[in-house]
Design a protein that fits this description.
single chain, 102 residues, alpha+beta, GIY-YIG endonuclease, 4 helices, 3 strands
Length: 102
């Protein structure tokens, strides 16, 4: 039996794909959720944590409880709007059922 020789990935160029993230934060203070979208999830979470985002400033500390990645901005904004609806809220509640109920 011959051994299969795999080509190294040294010269393989991965395509650069910029993602948009739809995220859900939960306030540790009042347990309420906040839904948003961003191109840079790490930076945006830091901004929320430092109180630089007016809508979450008084609800800190916050924790990131869910996020999704989208290839384009339009998909991300549509998903954000959906998650802010009653049905979207129920989706998050069901998706994170064991997490949210402890």
């Amino acid at each position: 039996m011959k051994k299969k020789i795999l080509a190294p990935l040294n010269n393989f160029k991965f395509p650069i794909v910029y993602m948009y993230y739809v995220y859900v934060l939960q306030s540790k203070k009042d347990k309420e959720r906040y839904v948003g979208y961003t191109k840079n999830l790490k930076l945006r979470f830091e901004q929320h944590g430092k109180g630089l985002v007016k809508s979450t400033r008084d609800r800190r500390p916050l924790k990131l409880i869910y996020y999704e990645a989208c290839i384009n901005q339009q998909d991300a904004t549509h998903r954000e709007k959906y998650l802010k609806t009653y049905h979207g809220s129920m989706f998050i509640k069901n998706r994170l059922k064991s997490y949210l109920t402890g």
